[in-house]
UniProtKB/TrEMBL annotation:
<keyword id="KW-0406">Ion transport</keyword>
<dbReference type="GO" id="GO:0015344">
    <property type="term" value="F:siderophore uptake transmembrane transporter activity"/>
</dbReference>
<dbReference type="InterPro" id="IPR012910">
    <property type="entry name" value="Plug_dom"/>
</dbReference>
<dbReference type="InterPro" id="IPR036942">
    <property type="entry name" value="Beta-barrel_TonB_sf"/>
</dbReference>
<dbReference type="InterPro" id="IPR058134">
    <property type="entry name" value="PirA/FepA/PfeA"/>
</dbReference>
<feature type="domain" description="TonB-dependent receptor-like beta-barrel">
    <location>
        <begin position="316"/>
        <end position="752"/>
    </location>
</feature>
<dbReference type="GO" id="GO:0042931">
    <property type="term" value="F:enterobactin transmembrane transporter activity"/>
</dbReference>
<dbReference type="GO" id="GO:0044718">
    <property type="term" value="P:siderophore transmembrane transport"/>
</dbReference>
<dbReference type="Pfam" id="PF00593">
    <property type="entry name" value="TonB_dep_Rec_b-barrel"/>
</dbReference>
<keyword id="KW-1133">Transmembrane helix</keyword>
<comment type="similarity">
    <text>Belongs to the TonB-dependent receptor family.</text>
</comment>
<dbReference type="InterPro" id="IPR000531">
    <property type="entry name" value="Beta-barrel_TonB"/>
</dbReference>
<feature type="transmembrane region" description="Helical">
    <location>
        <begin position="21"/>
        <end position="43"/>
    </location>
</feature>
<protein>
    <submittedName>
        <fullName>Ferric enterobactin receptor</fullName>
    </submittedName>
</protein>
<keyword id="KW-0998">Cell outer membrane</keyword>
<keyword id="KW-0410">Iron transport</keyword>
<dbReference type="InterPro" id="IPR010105">
    <property type="entry name" value="TonB_sidphr_rcpt"/>
</dbReference>
Length: 786
């Protein structure tokens, strides 16, 4: 008789492929060492019969048979932690993303979209922000492999990049499911996962198939950009050993009109540039002026080609070879860091003409081995990722920073980033006192950057221990870093009710040194339907190649410098930075019954240490200007609540709701928010299977108040605009109709009640009103397959 497990710990074989996070990691040289260590220990008991019995399962490396008990890997048990959610294929089809998968992911508990700095610069470049830790602390994976192309975009002083992030490299039609891991469950993935992990898992055709999809999204407001998308996917078995998949995608989303935010631009007081104090008029009242009009959302053109060849060596071993080429080209809307487009005739010309000012091309090659051995299972891969970031030259200093510079308008500066990731993970079933599965893994990540901008900067000699090369023509445009990691986890069935998952990861980063990341997760079945879960883990993020490079220079004309020391200033890279770290804790209780009810609530608390930001403490002087470096901020704290509820209203109607409440999110040094996220977020959805052919969907999302920073991030003065973002609600309706097994129609309306949200400025001038939320739009999609 099988042992009794909590409900979420029982797995049907058919569910394994749906649940696993495929493609975990390699370092080929260290794999041989691991195999040598375990070979002698397992030579006497090969469990070959059990492996043969289990051979029909998909090779996910997640489930093993041990003494008639289903024992899963540590990774798979962590996927059942409270801070984990899975977005299935049906959810994606019923509420399809317009362009970026972040449109779907944002509806999960703990997830919002934010610009990539708390100051609001580049606010319309909204990316996945998990539990308020910021987009830079969200690690994106495709089939378990890291996506790091956004690191090829320069990081500005406020921590912002002019990038859409890394969630837009896979077309929606190719996605099987998306796994979102938050808190302690994400810490096992190493650098960059302090906030969470988003794993985009692609579809693998089991039989010969071909599909073609067209999609259109038409906003009611003609000032907003339209979207058109076409995707084809083909694949299936070639013979008994080989199968393939190829796909092609083209997606074009237009840019917003240059004047879309004109009506939302507020009048603000005229302030003294030095003191920040209001300037008074003859009547003694503050002088007012209309602030500069901020740009709307930028357009994007996506082109994507992918190919996969799978080779089944035998019943136990499979090799996958994959290649992909993707490109994102922008359609300029006029966005800058600090100013509107009117400050430059060239910017206006580029924006009104819908020109391209930057493009990122991403190329990947990878090989993956998934195996079943006499002693367990393994999953090993190696991936090369090349990102080329080409963009028109931009001004690099002061208020004009980020504006296309007429001196360089015909030059395209290129930043080339090569990433090599190798990872291997092995699962060993044990029965030492109690059933358990030991997971051992090794990982390597290498980054090599060649930045053409390095040799076109200004002369600079700071002294005071700042090792910047004075002559820009002599600066080395190349930089690099390497990370080596090893980790162990054990999924222990202490009793038939109590599961304990301890883990330990060690990372050595060539620039920031060593990091230990211990973790402990536990699950206890209070009853057959009620389970208590808790976890604690230490997570980290290594500094990026811009932050550690002493030749990466920013120059402010004065308005962007801490007023304490006055005048213009420089900010340069700091090779002595420590890694950001956080202690992530969560505890939750979940209820699931056989009738389909599912409810839970989770409390999370993150203590953030050594957060990296541009410095406020002088390290030298040059040209009579103060010099700062990137530095580690001592402490920050984030805490909140997440809840979920699924109600089977009827056999054909399901109602699901999740909510997030942010109790606290602030830098303990200055009391400012770490990320501009709503105080609370509620996502509710009703799915009705009206007929065998027709499904209807109603989705409602309510965003609470977003508080603005009260202190200007750059100058440390009182912020000129502290207006919060008022609460607002978005309602979406959609339908899915299957004419037959070969033809499917999707249609719907987003933002049904046309709650349009406008951006009010750039940087701190916008307060918390840093982004555009598009108004009512209509979409339709048709898929034909055979």
């Amino acid at each position: 008789m099988k042992a009794r497990y909590p409900i979420e710990y029982r797995f049907l074989k058919a569910d394994v492929a749906r649940r696993g996070i495929a493609g975990l990691y390699t370092a080929t040289a260290m794999v041989a060492v691991l195999m040598a260590l375990v070979d002698s220990a397992w030579a006497q008991d090969t469990r070959a019969q059990r492996a043969e019995t289990n051979a029909e399962l998909p090779l996910t490396g997640e489930e093993l048979l041990l003494d008639e008990v289903v024992v899963v890997s540590a990774r798979e048990q962590l996927s059942q932690a409270p801070g984990v959610s899975i977005i299935g294929r049906q959810q994606i089809e019923m509420a399809p993303p317009v362009n970026d998968l972040s449109d779907v992911i944002r509806r999960q508990p703990g997830v919002n979209l934010t610009g990539n700095s708390a100051g609001g610069q580049r606010g319309n470049n909204r990316q996945i922000d998990i539990r308020g830790m910021g987009p830079e602390n969200t690690l994106i994976l495709i089939d378990g492999k890291p996506v790091l192309s956004r690191n090829s975009v320069r990081m500005r002083r406020g921590g912002e990049r002019d990038t859409r992030g890394d969630s837009n490299w896979v077309p929606a039609e190719l996605v099987d499911r998306i796994e979102v891991l938050r808190g302690p469950a994400a810490a096992r993935y190493g650098s960059g996962a302090s906030g969470g992990v988003v794993n985009i898992i692609t579809r693998r055709p089991e039989k010969q198939s071909f599909s073609a999809t067209t999609f259109a999204n038409i906003p009611e407001n003609s000032d907003e950009g339209r979207t058109y998308r076409s995707t084809i996917v083909a694949g299936g078995p070639i013979d008994e050993r080989f199968s393939y998949r190829i796909s092609a995608n083209y997606n074009r989303t237009g840019a917003d009109n240059i004047d879309i935010n004109q009506s939302a631009t507020p009048f603000i007081p005229v302030t003294d540039w030095w003191t920040g104090a209001p300037v008074l008029g003859p009547d003694g009242e503050p002088l007012m002026q209309r602030d500069q009009v901020a740009a709307g959302r930028e357009g994007v053109v996506n082109t994507d080609f992918r190919g996969l060849l799978s080779w089944k060596l035998d019943e136990r071993h499979v090799l996958d070879f994959e290649a992909a080429w993707s490109q994102q080209r922008n359609i300029y809307a006029g966005d800058t860091l600090f100013s509107d487009v009117s400050v430059s005739d060239l910017n206006q010309e580029l924006a009104r003409g819908g020109h391209e000012t930057n493009r990122v091309t991403r190329t990947t090659l990878s090989a993956t081995h998934r195996g079943k051995w006499d002693f367990g299972t393994s999953n090993t891969f190696i991936q090369w990722e090349n990102a080329k970031n080409r963009r028109l030259g931009e001004a690099e200093a002061g208020r004009s920073e980020g504006i296309i510079d007429s001196r360089y308008a015909k030059d395209r500066k290129v930043i080339t980033l090569d990433n090599v990731t190798a990872k291997s993970e092995w699962n060993f079933p044990l029965n030492i006192v109690v059933p358990q599965t030991l997971t051992a893994g090794v990982e390597f990540r290498g980054e090599w950057m060649d930045d053409e901008n390095m040799t076109s900067g200004q002369e600079f000699t700071a002294g005071g221990g700042v090792n910047t090369v004075g002559n820009p023509e002599l600066r080395n445009p190349k930089s690099q870093s390497q990370l080596y990691a090893v980790y162990l986890e054990d999924n222990i069935l202490v009793t038939d009710k109590f599961i304990l998952t301890p883990g330990l990861r060690f990372d050595h980063h060539s620039e920031s040194g060593n990091n230990w990341s211990p973790s402990l997760n536990a699950s206890y079945a209070l009853t057959d339907e009620l389970t208590l879960k808790a976890g604690i883990a230490r997570a980290f993020k290594a500094p990026n190649l811009f932050q550690t490079n002493p030749n990466y220079i920013y120059n402010s004309r004065g308005n962007g410098c801490p007023y304490t020391y006055g005048g213009p200033c420089y900010v340069v890279g700091n090779p002595n930075l420590k890694a950001e770290t956080s202690i992530n804790k969560e505890v939750g209780i979940g209820y699931i019954n056989e009738a389909g009810w599912n409810a839970g609530i989770t409390y999370f608390h993150n203590d953030f240490k050594d957060h990296i930001q541009s410095g406020t403490t002088p390290v030298g002087r040059f040209n009579n200007q103060v010099v700062y470096q990137w530095e580690n901020v001592p402490k920050a704290v984030i805490q909140g609540l997440e809840g979920n509820l699924i109600i089977p209203v009827h056999e054909k109607v399901t109602w699901s709701t999740n909510a997030t409440y942010m109790i606290e999110s602030k830098n303990k040094t200055d009391g400012q928010p770490l990320s501009l996220v709503p105080k609370y977020t509620i996502n509710s959805n009703v799915l009705w299977k009206a007929t065998e052919q027709l499904e209807l969907n109603l989705g409602v999302t309510h965003y609470g108040k977003i508080d603005a920073p009260t202190v200007d991030f750059y100058t440390l003065r009182q912020a000129g605009n502290t207006r919060s973002r008022s609460p607002y609600t978005l309602v979406n309706v959609g339908a899915r109709y299957e004419f037959n097994e070969n033809l499917r129609l999707l249609a719907g309306v987003t933002n049904l009640f046309d709650k349009s949200v406008k951006r009010e400025g750039t940087g701190n001038a916008a307060g918390a009103n840093t982004f555009n939320e598009p108004g009512r739009a209509y979409y339709i999609s048709l898929t034909g397959s055979f």
